[in-house]
Structure formats: C-alpha cells, structure tokens
Amino acid sequence: MLPSGTAKRSEKRGRMKIAMVGASDPLTFDDRMRLDVASIHIGHATDDLDIINLNNGRDFLIERRRYDAVILHSIFHSNRPYAMKLALRTGGTNSSLVHSIERWRKRLVSTHARVIVVWELLPAALSGWNLGDLPQYRTKYRDHRITVYKRAA
C-alpha cells in the first residue's frame, strides 16, 4: 500500500494501465466502443492498454500482472458445462483451460484494479450476475449489458 498522497508511477504520468481482456489487436469498432463507455467509469486517460486475448497466446487467468483498471470484453461463459464443451469442440469460441467463476473472481481481485468493467453483450458471456459480489469491491452499476465494480476504499 502506498503512503497517503503518493501516486503510482502510471498516475503521475496521467496514464492508467488498463487490461483489455478478450479485446482484439488491433481493437475492433466494438472494442473501442466498450473502451469509450468504460472510460466514463474509469475516469482517466486510456492510452496505456494491455490487450490480453487467448487467440494471441495470453491467458489472463494464469497471468499475475496488476492493473489500474480491467475491462472484460464479452468473455465466453455458460452455466451449463455441456454447452461449454460443445462450443469449444465445434471451434466457435475459445476458453481458458482454468476457466471457472471462482477463478475469475480471484484473478479480478488479485489485479488490485480501482475499477473493473464486465461487458456482457453476447448471449453466452461472463457477467456481473455470474460473478456476484467481489471481495474488496462494491458494485457501482449493473444492468443486462454491463457491471462496474469499484475498489472499496
């Protein structure tokens, strides 16, 4: 924990390190739209982006990096294990080998992000409704498309 009045190096530069989990590289129109809307809740410049996507060989769930903010871009998830297996087997989507609600909850909290934004714009997407309350966070906003968690002071 930093002493009172001490800013992180990224904040001193006016930049935030933002994990863009599930976004494409380069960003698609949809990725940019999600980032623009999330910026309202993040409240900082968004020019220090870390794009994390299984298709590029990176698995957010097994990485250990910390971020100022995390944005989940419609991460594939189904509460029905057979549906997950079927979708993965048919090649229509991709999922981490360690994917579980509990693993997502632990990983998100371990980032120590001030803000976590969960986009759930696709029918079989991980959502704030699936994740529920996160330890050390309060739910700032939740509807059928987006959940915003803010780190408790």
Describe the structure.
The chain has five helices and six strands; from the N terminus they run H-E-H-E-E-H-H-E-H-E-E. The chain has 153 residues and is of the alpha/beta class. It has one domain (9-144). A six-stranded mixed beta sheet has the order 2-1-3-4-6-5, with helices on one face. Strand 1, helix 2 and strand 2 form a beta-alpha-beta unit. The longest helix has 14 residues, at 29-42.
Describe how the helices and strands are arranged:
Elements (H helix, E strand, L loop, with lengths): L8 H4 L4 E5 L7 H14 L5 E5 L16 E5 L7 H9 L11 H10 L4 E5 L8 H4 L5 E6 L3 E6 L2
Parallel strand pairs: 1-2, 1-3, 3-4
Antiparallel strand pairs: 4-6, 5-6
Condensed summary:
The chain is 27% helix and 21% strand. With 153 residues, it is an alpha/beta fold.
